[in-house]
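FAQ: What does the model actually see?

It sees only this:
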Amino acid sequence: IPLDSFSIYDRKISVVSSTSSRFYAPSDLSEIGGMQREHIQSCPKWRNVHACHDCMFRNAQPDLEGMQGLQTAYALCFFSFKYKFILYEYAMVYWFDVIGDAPGEDTGMWIV
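And it is asked to produce this:
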């Protein structure tokens, strides 16, 4: 799509350093009915020293078992804007590449 086909957006864009995610985790029934809520951080200077970018998983292929169906990323920032009275909320992430198709032999953990 050519860039000149997009309209110019000259309004406010809000950037925040954390958000919360609600999801259903049927294997963890410690919350009501398996519903969970996690806070995800993306701070350029956590405690005014180092950056803090939480990692997250996306269930890209639920028919595959375990890590094989997941994608891994870390949060770069969260931002939102309103356009024609609709609020759009986004996360900018960095996607990791999985190395291999099985966990590492030494640690038993997946390598990204």
